[in-house]
Amino acid sequence: MGAALAHGVPATGLDQDSDVRASSSALTIHSNAGGVTTGEFILTAAGRRWHQSLVLQRVSPATVRDDLTAAGLVLTTAAPNSTRWLLAKRAENRVVPESGRR
Q1: Is 0.90 surpassed by the pTM of this model?
Q2: pLDDT digits (tens, 9 = 90+) for 58-102
Q3: Looking at the record, which segments are called Disordered (predicted)?
Q4: Given Cys at both, which of 36, 41, 43, 47 links 52, Cβ 3.0 to 4.6 Å?
Q5: What angle is formed at CA 64 by the lines to CA 78 and CA 91, rounded to 5 degrees?
Q6: Residue 7 shares a structural domain with residue 38
Q7: Domain span including residue 52
Q8: Would you place residue 3 in the very low, low, confident or very high pLDDT band (cuts 50, 70, 90)?
Q9: Does one domain contain both 92 and 42?
Q10: Domain check: are 35 and 50 in the same one?
């Protein structure tokens, strides 16, 4: 198991005054091959429907750590392969790699 990076189009139109008590949601997977999953999340509430397209790519914990480090963050989840959520925090002594300097 690895982490998943999600990229999507932001859902719009739901405001704080909407009644979400009577709501439903669905996740449809359109394809799941080669480590990439595409799908759609649908939320229905207050007589309205919102669609969120998504693309997920499975990546290793080492890749997540490297990407977080490049962004000045540190992965704080002790066992990333055994959880659904990853936590990160700002690195205390950020060192910018040579490749990231301009």
Answers
A1: no
A2: 888 899 999 999 999 999 988 888 887 889 999 987 665 666 555
A3: 1-22
A4: 41
A5: 70
A6: yes
A7: 1-59
A8: very low
A9: no
A10: yes
